[in-house]
Amino acid sequence: MFTKLRNRISRVRLKWRPAMRYPGIMEAETRIDIARIASMSDAELERLNALLPWAAFVNDAEGRCFGRAYSSRKRNEPQAVPDRRILELDRRFGLAGKRVLEAGCFEGIHTVGLMQQKASVSAFDGRIENVVKTLVRAWAFGQKPDVFLWNLEEDGEPPFDIGCDILHHVGVLYHLTDPIGHLAQVLPRVREAIMLDTHIARAGEGQTGKSAGFEYRYCNFREAGRAPPFAGLGDHAKWVELDDLRRFLVQAGFANVDVAEQRDERNGLRVLIFAHR
Ligand SMILES: C[S@@+](CC[C@H](N)C(=O)[O-])C[C@H]1O[C@@H](n2cnc3c(N)ncnc32)[C@H](O)[C@@H]1O
User: Fold this and answer.
1) At residue 6, does pLDDT exceed 80?
2) What is the mean pLDDT of the chain?
3) E-assigned strands of 78-226?
4) Contact, 166 vs 190, CB < 8 A?
5) What pLDDT shows up at residue 23?
6) Is 185 touching ligand 1 by the criterion CB < 6 Å?
7) Is 50 exceeded by the pLDDT of residue 8?
8) Nearest-angstrom CA–CA distance, 221 and 243
9) Domains of the chain
């Protein structure tokens, strides 16, 4: 049973405008020096922006958009690099010299943020267009992550070594049909810590399920299909209740679980968790 229809987002894509500026939303701190964009003419940058199905953007030092907004309501502001959560991850565990596995790299904005903190990053995404956009974004920033196409729910064993010091897992768990099964696969390969940002089910509203021998409470949500660049790749997803998620992390060896944020967002409850062995 689907308990709620998610992602009531506008499908109306913003028309690309040659001026490459979204009025009123440029903040000084989101203007970024992007090595290979800085030397690009407006015309070449427009070509690059039209070349790929971008659904998020950053601003270069001159306030020009690299990428584009998904819609008038979603990813319609320039993203900061590095993201504030990456700065917090770095403060807690120190990213320099660490091997980071990034789940669901989307368009590489977090990938380059992690690499700016001197981590070496292996990233994956189940959508080939997201793999390509991540590679192009990283190229623009002068970074060289290892990026893989892997639909973690369909493709069986990963086509690369997912062993890492730190797992960066933002915005992906709540898109999976078997979130616990996925964590059971990946967590044993994480040596030190994880940052997990995910929607969770409201306590008491869910049903009981079992995966990897672990009983937990969850709610079902419909997924939007292959076309939207953010969605899960199955027909539905399970959102896990927080207590069970915490219990599973501890059971997987991450004894120190800090729920650093709980946010009541438009689409539902969301948490930011840092956990380490
Ligand atoms: C909501 S976006 C989050 C993107 C990024 N981590 C962020 O926080 O901006 C979810 C990402 O996970 C990817 N994804 C969803 N289901 C996946 C799966 N089964 N295997 C691999 N990637 C998946 C999507 O393609 C998308 O890039």
Assistant:
1) no
2) 91
3) 99-103, 120-125, 146-149, 164-170, 190-199, 207-211, 214-222
4) yes
5) 42
6) no
7) no
8) 19
9) 84-276 (3.40.50.150)
Q: Is the CB of 232 under 6 A from ligand 1?
A: yes
In this structure, how many other beta carbons lie within 10 angstroms of the beta carbon of residue 62? 12
* Predicted local confidence at residue 30, as pLDDT: 82
Residue 271 is inside which H or E element, if any? strand 268-276
Cα 94 from chain centre: 20
What DSSP designation does 252 have? T
Burial label, 269 (beta-carbon count in 10 A; 0-12, 13-18, 19+)? middle
How far is the centre of ligand 1, averaged over its atoms, from the C-alpha of 39 (Å)?
31
CA atoms within 13 A on the CB side of 97: 2
Is 104's C-beta closer than 6 angstroms to any atom of ligand 1? yes
User: Given a cut of 70, is residue 197 above it in pLDDT?
Assistant: yes
CA 37 to chain centre: 23
- Model confidence band, residue 29 (pLDDT cutoffs 50, 70, 90): low
Across the range 15-42, mean pLDDT stands at: 65
C-beta of 113 in contact with ligand 1 (< 6 A): no
pLDDT reported for residue 40: 97
Q: Do the beta carbons of residue 79 and residue 65 sit within 8 Å?
A: no
> Quick one: 50 exposed, middle or buried, by C-beta within 10 A (0-12, 13-18, 19+)?
exposed
Q: Do 250 and 258 meet the contact criterion of CB atoms below 8 Å apart?
A: no
Verify whether ligand 1 is closer than 6 Å to residue 70 (CB atom): no
Residue 255, both tokens: 């004894």
